[in-house]
Amino acid sequence: MQRLLVFAVLILVAACRGGGDSSSTIQTDLGPDLSVTIADLIVEGPTTGDLASPWNRYFVSSYDADKVAAMRDHPGFRANDFSWAGRRSNPLLASRLDYALSTGLTGAGQIVSLIDNAVRLNHEQFAGKTIYTSGSAPASGDYHGTAVASIMAGTGDAGGMIGIAPAADIHQGYLDFNSGISWTSLRDHMNAAADVGAVVSNNSWGLTGQTVANNNVATYFNDRNRRRYVDGLRNFAQDGVIVFAMQNDVAATSASLMAALPLGVPDLEKNWIAVINAIPILTMTGLSAPPVNLLPALKRRGSA
Which end of the chain has fewer surrounding CB within 10 Å, N or C? Predict the structure, then answer.
């Protein structure tokens, strides 16, 4: 059985994907002072050609300074302040999520998916949300899945930290960290996420000891069972983005096999994000494995 390694990850999914009425007033759970009419803020980018991608399809052209300040003062936003190794940081501020949330881009009407261990469904951070599940919950362990789901879509209520997409609903595919991988189950989770219309799939896990340095990525995922999982990834990637965390090892000299999967399955690259973790200060202090052995290979294929 392949052992699992669990990671923490932060994703940015506040913006809605294409479709819907961009001229409506969005009333969020963040209070009436942060409702906003976004018709004059959201500009639609190219819909065809090389520049037509999920990342530049829409962009915000202006901000209301008072709404940005109100968002920064929101208790759930301020609750993201933390200290690590004597340094203070706020990942939401560092990622400029204050601006996105101030315009009403809160994930309202969207579904975010994670493959993780059990989420505590009655947690106050998920109150009022629709939560979809696939598979059977593991017998024990829900702290990691609950934490990751809160980072993704926590409401920030009751003194908790606000998530990246606080108004989004949630889909979860169960993964038991105490047992081996079932590639068929992973495929089914990806297909279930696609079926409910999730826009992102977060994966804060990996395979213990498996890196780009000690595997041929294409060969590894050409195995019959693993190809089933790749089929599920391709199905989801038709209209969604897949996020994988790098391993939590600052001394690592190679990228995690799972995070670097598009090196062996190149058609997934444009819908894939491999996430590293760092504290942004005057210089970057890394907290996870650097993207070594991954970026050079991507550049050799002509990617940015």
Answer: C
